[in-house]
Specification:
The structure holds 2 protein chains of 2 kinds.
Chain A: E1 6-12, E2 15-21, E3 44-51, E4 54-61, E5 70-75, E6 83-90, E7 95-101
Antiparallel strand pairs in A: 1-2, 2-5, 3-4, 3-6, 6-7
Chain B: H1 2-25, H2 29-34, H3 38-46, E1 51-53, E2 57-60, E3 64-65, E4 71-77, E5 84-89, E6 96-102, E7 106-114, E8 120-128, E9 131-141
Parallel strand pairs in B: 1-9, 3-9
Antiparallel strand pairs in B: 2-4, 4-7, 5-6, 5-8, 8-9
Classes of the chains: A mainly beta, B alpha+beta.
């Protein structure tokens, strides 16, 4: 089970300012473990952000995004009670998400 | 009978068109991520779209990154009609780092963190329907982020 996305945000003049953190190893596939074996690539390759189930933003990641990716973004036309959700999928098909209700 | 057939043909064509559309809007990012040089990645992403240096992009990266494994990057812009923002680290084994698709309901203002193997030029590419705007900055890395 992949860890949940940590998500924080605030609403200011209809704009949701959201910060998210996705715990993930983000292995590039070029590093070796102490025994000298290559560690296979394992990274998030797709992040999608929704407002009330409507997609508002998406991101394609390569392996060169830092470990435990941090992603901050802004969404227009938001009102209190709207739900912002962030989900990711990695190259092994694992997935996780996190959501936030705007106040 | 005839009308039905026409309707069916029409809807099939519409379906085909709808399936093709996203591919045209968002270029083939998978190929761009695999590219080992920034020029090839740019070509895969934007094809022949004209590119232009722009001061309208607010591109924030440190001049000197103490730790190449965590280099904060933020890109924001007031340019109209932004479709996507791409971050490219020229000297990385695969220069393309991340690409963000901005819908009309999102603001072209994103922040993230990337890994850098060594000192390199970092580029922010802002795509609009008819042009790609570029901002770039040299970043010095004192400790590499790729097993260095």
């Amino acid at each position: 089970m992949a860890a949940q996305v940590k998500i924080r945000g605030k609403l200011k003049d209809g704009v949701a300012q959201v910060k998210s953190l996705m715990p993930h190893p983000m292995e590039t596939g070029t590093q070796r473990d102490p025994a000298g074996n290559l560690i296979p690539a394992h990274y998030i390759d797709k992040v999608t952000c929704y407002r009330n189930d409507q997609e508002v933003l998406s991101a394609d990641f390569g392996a060169s995004v830092s470990k435990d990716p941090y992603f901050a973004f802004k969404v227009k036309n938001c009102s209190p009670g709207d739900v912002i959700k962030v989900t990711w999928v990695d190259n092994k098909g694992e997935t996780s998400s996190g959501e936030l209700v705007l106040k | 009978m005839n009308i039905n057939r026409r309707k069916w043909l029409g809807s099939m064509l519409a379906l085909g068109g709808a399936a093709l559309l996203p591919m045209r809007l968002f270029a083939d990012t998978a190929a761009a991520f695999k590219a080992t040089s920034a020029d090839v990645a740019l070509k895969e992403l934007f094809g022949d779209l004209p590119m232009e240096e722009s001061s309208e992009i607010n591109f924030k990266v440190p001049d000197i990154a103490e730790n190449g494994a965590v280099v904060p990057v933020s890109v924001s812009t007031d340019i109209e009609g932004v479709q996507s923002i791409t971050i490219m680290v020229d000297e990385n084994p695969n220069p393309m780092s991340a690409s963000f698709n901005i819908s009309p309901d999102a603001i072209a203002d994103i922040s993230t963190r990337v890994k850098m193997g060594k000192s390199s030029k970092v580029r922010a590419l802002v795509r609009t329907p008819d042009k790609v705007y570029v901002a770039s900055q040299e970043v010095k890395v004192t400790i590499g982020g790729c097993g260095g």
